[in-house]
Design a protein that fits this description.
Distance between the termini: 72 Å
Largest sheet: 3 strands, mixed
Order of helices and strands: HHHHHHEHEEEE
Shape: elongated
Number of helices: 7
Length: about 220
């Protein structure tokens, strides 16, 4: 049987969201992979704490979990009244906010779960902007390592990975983009899916081309 989420966090089944948040903060400080880069046990402990937190901090998920837990633990038809958590602002307790608050910088976990748009500043002559033109651009973006699938230092052989245990690689991209006729200074073109892709579970961001119309042919 799976370990109880409440036991993982070390809180009561009646714990408030503030108590759950404090418990997760303590465990994150102790077990986060960024603080224990060479300890696979720490990574597993953090994953368990993260799973428990995400299931208990959301009122609807917590309610479903409590129902399943009571069903598995009951041997009679006796019903016990338990106080259910009231509505809370779960968005105030996102994992990324807590980890940023604890460590003072964006963690690898946060980066992996965020879509990254890129900006490319492109200069074109006014005449080309008026009639429309095709331009070839070269840029660099960050993508997850396909060897370790973004796991980086969680992989036992991280020192032999192409990403050197970072979970991410920088790659060069070449694209031909069409600049519509009549484009104005400051116009923005969005190229879907050409931004960073830091995790196989998260779609890539977009490439935003910012046009700078200059005088000339």
């Amino acid at each position: 049987m799976a370990i109880c989420y409440y036991k993982i966090l070390g809180v009561s089944v009646r714990a408030s969201q503030d108590e759950i948040k404090r418990a997760f903060r303590m465990l994150a400080l102790r077990w986060h992979p960024d603080r224990n880069p060479h300890d696979p046990v720490a990574a597993e402990r953090f994953r368990e704490a993260l799973d428990a937190y995400e299931n208990l901090i959301d009122p609807s998920r917590r309610g479903r979990y409590d129902q399943v837990r009571r069903h598995k633990g009951s041997r009679t038809r006796t019903r016990r009244h338990e106080r259910r958590p009231g509505p809370q602002r779960a968005s105030a307790y996102t994992v990324e906010e807590i980890l940023s608050e604890l460590f003072g910088f964006e963690t690898h976990h946060a980066r992996q779960h965020r879509r990254n748009d890129l900006r490319f500043d492109l200069q074109i002559p006014r005449s080309a902007a008026v009639r429309g033109t095709q331009e070839e651009i070269i840029f660099r973006r960050w993508v997850f390592c396909r060897t370790c699938m973004g796991n980086g230092n969680k992989t036992a052989s991280s020192t032999r990975l192409q990403c050197h245990g970072m979970g991410e690689l920088e790659e060069s991209r070449t694209l031909k983009v069409w600049i519509p006729a009549g484009s104005q200074q400051g116009a923005r073109l969005r190229i879907t899916g050409e931004g960073d892709r830091l995790s196989p579970q998260v779609p890539p961001g977009d490439l935003i081309i910012c046009l700078h119309v200059i005088e000339g042919k």
